[in-house]
Amino acid sequence: MADSLQDQLLKSGLADADKAKRLAKEKRKAAKLARGTGRDLIDENKEAARQVLAKKVQRDRELNQALNSKAQRKAINAQIKQLIENHKLESGQGEIGFNFSDGKKVKKLYVTSLEQKQLSAGVLSIVKQGDEYKMVPRKVADKISERDPDRVIASETNPNVALTQEEQDWYKDYEVPDDLNW
């Protein structure tokens, strides 16, 4: 049988047995070190994959949060629109121009003299719906303000304006249904 090169060198006397053992030991150490480095590479790959997964989870969480906030804003806008549509007073039928400011712009809404007094006293408020301005009762404007304070344009409380009992009971002309349950 063919002997290994190491065995042949030992038999011929060209190599020393101690030197052969040292070389074999160094070879085993190098192999062990190479195997250990392989584990480090595997650990590094696992860590990189874990980091990529964590980044993806964070990105997904941020996208879900953006979608949830968008849906919440949409729901709030729908609530505000419904409040305005259900409680708005017909405006534009008066002859008196009521001036109010919307940001840096001065706007005018034509109201009756009763509505003007009620707006000045804070019984009525002006809210913004899209590009239009609507008059609503103060309580409704407060509910709208809880949801979006920027939508309430003119909501003043002026104690110097005195309203008569008839002007305070402006809603008495509205018909109350007979089948209304309290």
- The neighbouring-strand order within the major sheet is 4-3-5
The best one-word shape is rod-shaped
Number of domains: 2
Residue runs with pLDDT of under 50 for 5 or more positions? none
Count of helices? 5
Radius of gyration: 42 Å
Q: Could you spell the SSE succession in H and E letters?
A: HHEEHEEHEH
Helix content range of the residues, please? 55-70%
Distance between the termini: 110 Å
Largest sheet: 3 strands, antiparallel
Mean pLDDT: 79
Structure description:
The protein folds into 2 domains: 18-87; 89-171, no CATH class. The strands form 2 sheets. It has a 3-stranded antiparallel sheet with strand order 4-3-5. A two-stranded antiparallel ribbon has the order 1-2. It is built from 5 helices and 5 strands. The radius of gyration is 42 Å and the shape is rod-shaped. Helix content is 56%, strand content 16%. With 182 residues, the chain is α+β, with helices and mostly antiparallel strands. The longest helix has 71 residues, at 17-87.
Which terms summarize this structure?
single chain, 182 residues, alpha+beta, 2 domains, two-stranded antiparallel sheet, rod-shaped
Write the layout of secondary structure elements.
Blueprint (H helix, E strand, L loop, with lengths): L4 H8 L4 H71 L8 E7 L2 E7 L1 H9 L2 E6 L2 E6 H10 L4 E3 L10 H4 L14
Antiparallel strand pairs: 1-2, 3-4, 3-5
